[in-house]
Amino acid sequence: MDATLPASALARRSKEGPTPLFGAYGIVKRFGSFTANDGVDLEIRAGEIHALLGENGAGKSTLMKILYGLLEPTEGVVTHKGDIVQLPNPEAARRLGIGMVFQHFSLCENLTVAENIALVMPKDLSGRALADRIARLGIDYGLHLDPDRPVWSLSAGERQRIEIVRCLLQDPSLVILDEPTSVLTPGEAEVLFTVLERLREEGRALLYISHRLDEVRRLCVRATILRGGKVVGACNPREETARSLAAMMVGSAVREVTPREGGAVGRERLRLDRLSLPAPDLHATALHDVSLSVAGGEILGIAGIAGNGQAELFAALSGESRAPEPDSVRLDGKPVGALGINARRRLGAGFVPEERNGHAAAPLMSLSENALLSRYPTASLTRFGLIRLGAARDLAKRVIEAFDVRKAGPDPAAGTLSGGNLQKFVVGREIQAEPGVLVINQPTWGVDAAAAAHIRQAVIDLAARGTAILVISQDLDELFEIAGSIAVLHDGTLSPAVPAGETSREAIGLLMGGSSDHAPPVADVAHPREPMPSPAHAH
Q: Can you give the residue range of the structural domain that contains 183?
């Protein structure tokens, strides 16, 4: 059916030789007056890992949803082995051999792992037979899952494994991966890379979307770059540096993060003292005698493999889980273990949970309403809440401007933003509020290189203004870039914190795996501090 292809497709075909396994030509997708894709051409060949690069809001996810049948293009065609095909729904895409690993998990919270996977599998593959295949694939690829666990009880990393296993069980000829390592530890990512190389060697095509450009350079030999919904370039990533790739994506050089050099450390602002909490359910992780201390001006990084108590630690710090003893958690010296999240916010704390959709933000509510949800405990009460809503609108506007949040419309629903732009908004919302204590879980999950640098610099700058910051992250590069000291959470137990400059990724990685053989000798982090004057600080 070549004669019916757009001129752009015929021109590329004459220059580039063999018919691609899949192609997208002249793709335009409009949402009202907003154009997400504008004349995009893309060809994917069998036996290659092809990168699709672009900053947050560049149109990558929209294009992927078109290829997977979740969206229909306003204009343009999709081809399979040279023939134009219609993809009215994901089932049609899967029949053609297209599988997708989503950045935002498309999982049913109240179903088990096996039940979620069964939703996209043939009806004759269910029950014990499906559970056995899940287990075998987990053993073969190192993607271990308990088929009987409900999804709501899983960490983000474990949910990502469901997406990957669900895709691989369909035996796809094209695998689309949207930020597949964003919630994986380095060891888990290495396992995934081995899987991807194996799939490529089997002759499958892989379309790889990632803001981790070192991964792109390692895996991919071709890349298509989007900016503002248009293709602005193509390259061999192995012939580029991470910085040059980032510059192509954003159209200018990406600034480097400037670490804080020295600086006065203030008084202790956040403290956990031998906090123990039982697991909230059979599939969660109990916390065991967790002690830590963070002073104003400090950034403490918490590393760990997904599912080792990060969610439970965040809930204990934010007040979503109450401590058995009020003194177990202290904010600026005040016992808050028995207080909830609103009371802790009134004491000057801010919180950014791991899951941005549904936990950090209400998807159907506007950005200003989401700003109000997080800040109303600290606002003065007025009749009808008019002053509070006006302040929330001002806060949302400041966040949008300061963190370059790309959006359609003046005050859109949070769920209409791309994943990276929503992440920028929820992190920026807390930073702009100038908290005295800030707890962040996975601060740069799914954001592009420029946005990640901006967020990390904003965190460093906030600490310099006297805030005590605790960052939970699976990205060791991130922790070593911004944290003054790092501790490791393993099976609900926190190791002593060590200065980042006195340890290594290898040593931290061993602790993440449960080894204590290479743990450096350090003092207990929960020792009392000598109070020091802290900078003037807004709450």
A: 2-97+172-250
Residue 518 lies inside a defined structural domain of this protein? no
Asked if residue 47 lies in contact with residue 203, where contact means CB atoms within 8 angstroms, the answer is yes
Is the distance from CB of 316 to CB of 329 less than 8 angstroms?
yes
- Tracing tokens 């490791």 back to the chain, one arrives at 488
Q: Are 482 and 257 in contact (CB under 8 A)?
A: yes
The enclosing H or E element of 26 equals: strand 22-31
pLDDT at 352: 95
pLDDT digits (tens, 9 = 90+) for 438-483: 999 999 887 888 888 889 999 999 999 999 999 999 888 889 999 9
The total domain count for the chain is 2
How many Å apart are CA 128 and CA 302, to the nearest integer? 38
CA 43 to chain centre: 27
What does the block give as tokens for 218? 């390692």
As given in the structure block, the two tokens for residue 203 are 């002759």
Structural contact between residues 98 and 104, judged by C-beta atoms closer than 8 angstroms: no
Claim to verify: residue 240 and residue 273 sit in the same structural domain? no
Residues 159 and 184 sit within 8 Å (Cβ to Cβ) = no
Nearest to 478 by CA among 491, 460, 493, 464: 460
pLDDT score at 219: 96
Q: How many residues does the chain have?
A: 539
Alpha-carbon torsion, ordered 441, 445, 451, 456, to 10 deg: 30
Single-letter residue type at 484: G
Structure-token pair, residue 22: 């899949």
